[in-house]
Amino acid sequence: MDRVHWFAMRTRHELETILRRIDGRGYKAYKDLRDQYDFSRYRLSVDHVQGDPFAAPSRVSAVIAASDSGFPSQLASTRPRRIAAADFLTRVFGCTAAAVSRGNRGTGGSGRIEIDCGGQAVLERNSCQVSSQQIEIRFTMGLPAAGRRVLGRQAAAMFFEELPRILEQVLFFENLPQAELRQQVETCEDQEALRRQMAEQDLVAFVADGAILPRRSGVDDRPLGGSQAIPFESPEALRCRLSRPNHGPIEGMGLPPGVHLIVGGGFHGKSTLLRALERGVYDHLPGDGREWVLADASACKIRAEDGRSIRAVDISPFISNLPLQRDTRRFSTDNASGSTSQAANIVEALEMGSRLLLIDEDTSATNFMLRDGRMQRLIAKSKEPITPLIDRVRELFESHGVSTVLVSGGSGDYFDVADRVIQMDAYHPREVTTEVRRLVAQHPSDRQSEAPAAFQPVAPREPLPAGFDARRGKRAVKIEARGRDTILFGREFIDLAQVEQLVDTSQTRAIGLALHLLAREFLGSGHSLSQGLDWLEQRLDQEGLDALSPFKTGNLARPRRFETGAAINRMRSLKAKIPQ
After folding, report:
1. 3-state SS, residue 192
2. Residue 230 DSSP one-character state
3. Residues in contact with 179: Cβ distance below 8 Å, sequence separation at least 6, in sequence order
4. How distant, in Å, are the alpha carbons of 135, 220, 289, 376, 409 from that of 267?
5. Are 268 and 304 in contact (CB under 8 A)?
6. Predicted pLDDT at 302
7. Looking at residue 7, what is its pLDDT?
8. How close are the terminal C-alpha atoms of the chain, in Å?
9. Rounded to an integer, what is the distance from CA 12 to the centroid of its chain?
10. Bridge partners of 95?
11. Which parts of 345-431 are beta strand (E)?
């Protein structure tokens, strides 16, 4: 059944009559509102009514035909344009609601009108959906009450004074800031076009001249302003030129496939550049400073993650010959060390299809990254189970086509394996590969490669549905996002705090529902994790985010397959096997 047309059509006058009738009655009288109402130019649906003033707010939606809205068809002609336009309308709704709605009235969350908005990234959401036929906007309303008593008159003010003012601003093209809307749509379309050109020109990353990479703070993702924000300027040796359909040609630093080293002193911008590349898998708002910073869509940030759960992962290319003959070809633990977790993170990223690894030594396990010549002399290889990344990173590229961008400020041994070296000097990049080659020739390293055997293709694992129980004992399914970093999945808490490319709580919420959908409808017939993620991507492409929930919601944002897979891999209840 079409989720938009669940309810019988009633008139705006009938809604007003209901609110007058239930004024002063018990809170459950609000359930009479669960219906669809004709506001003449748009339809308003009360999709879910909260159980009490302290519960999650009521879910409401409004739908208007594109012809009635006056919304130009060219702004919804392609998928990137539809996502960008929907994101813009969501932000307009949020700003307008904050200005128009009087907010708290009564007990709990009474009186609030809110919508699921984003940060600096432009994500596919279900809070607003734009097509050539119609526009649908989904939001929440805290229906006002004093204790358990309905405040019907205040509710009438919300429905007939505040909400129409908000929707008039959002749903009708003539009332929108049209220049800003077109700018966002065209900017996002250009970002997608640049990613296609990167693939055509064999680039794994691009940073435009003039990009502003630093952020205001660790908790404020907006661009740093003032003289402290130094615009990026590409080294000449890495400069390339791309074209944008709406904004014309653009120049900047293009990184071809290979092993790239970013070096420099502390606080000179190494990690800032890497963090910009991490977020380059998403489109960004105009004026973000990183809207022309792009990375291969499969780029994965890799780090050490002490204490994480690992299930049946083949980490033997990096760790073998453990004491007590522990099998590292099917390695499992509830409390991984820094080195075992980083090894598992790489193998899992390859299993999910990553072609670009992003690594910062600041968040890596030292013994996983390197064993220098002196340590090799003291501790024989036969006594050391770890094969460090330095001995695998070139093989990953040459044999498996996986590139790496690595931030290093303390080890010159990586000069031997790097294709290109970029030095960050007070936020200015310099290409110093020729100088590094000369240094390597003058001061050769005394360490020996420790790779015991070739890095074999990653064996696919089969997640078993038995590990995906979202029930709480005999109680119904319970799936909930606890902020961006945690999913409550049945009885289990899935910790995503170290999954650094997850940017929005609404993505986390969608991941929790996606795990349940995967287990219920796909896993269990010999399908691998990668096949499950392929199936999920196809399902979301065809049906949108509404495929994840049996109820009409407006608080989901689409995650990448890599963050969904990361959540599966961190489930302590996960049961997985590697086919023989």
Report:
1. helix
2. P
3. none
4. 46, 18, 19, 31, 10
5. no
6. 98
7. 61
8. 43
9. 39
10. none
11. 356-360, 403-407, 420-425, 428-431
Average pLDDT of 315-323?
A: 92
Q: Extract the tokens encoding 476.
A: 């119904």
Q: Are 95 and 162 in contact (CB under 8 A)?
A: no
- Token look-up 């969350």 returns 109
Percent of residues in the chain assigned helix, strand, coil, to nearest 5: 40, 20, 40
Contact indicator for 229, 212 with CB cutoff of 8 Å: yes
Distance CA 335, CA 253 (A): 40
Q: Which of 539, 536, 525, 513 is nearest to 462 (CA)?
A: 525
> Comparing C-alpha atoms, which of 194, 122, 131, 196 is closest to residue 558?
122
The 10s digit of each residue's pLDDT in 102-121 is 888 888 888 999 999 999 99
Distance CA 144, CA 155 (A): 6
Above 50 in pLDDT, residue 5? no
Overall residue count recorded for the chain in this entry:
580
- Closest by Cα among 67, 419, 478 to 256: 419
Amino acid at 481: A
Q: Which of 56, 7, 500, 428 is CA-nearest to residue 235?
A: 428
Interacting residues of 217 by C-beta distance below 8 A, sequence separation 6+: none
Report residue 349: phi and psi, to 5°: -65, -40
Asked whether the predicted pLDDT for residue 214 surpasses 70, the reply is yes
Is 145 in contact with 110 (CB distance < 8 Å)? yes
Residue type, 538: Q
Q: Give me the pLDDT at residue 91, please.
A: 98
Structure tokens belonging to residue 171: 């749903």
Q: What is the pLDDT of residue 580?
A: 63
Residue 438 structure tokens: 């000369």
d(CA 37, CA 7): 9
Q: Which two tokens stand for residue 152?
A: 């019907």
**Which residue from 314, 407, 428 is spatially nearest to 359, judged by alpha carbons?**
407
CB 184 within 8 A of CB 88: yes
Give the three-state DSSP class for 430.
Answer: strand
Spatial distance between the Cα atoms of 137 and 170, rounded to a whole number of angstroms? 9
CB 292 within 8 A of CB 211: yes
What is the phi/psi pair of residue 6, to 5°? -70, -35
Give dist(CA 178, CA 333) in Å, integer. Answer: 54
Q: Which two tokens stand for residue 149?
A: 């008593």
C-alpha span between 219 and 208 (Å, rounded): 24
Residue 115's CB is within 10 A of a number of other CB atoms, namely 24
CA–CA gap between residue 455 and residue 461 (Å, rounded): 17
Place of tokens 């650094």: 500
- Distance, CA of 574 to CA of 247 (rounded, Å): 47
Helix or strand run (H / E) with residue 438 = helix 433-442
267 by DSSP, 3-state: which? coil
Could you give the C-alpha distances from 343 to 302, 331, 424, in angstroms and in order? 9, 11, 28
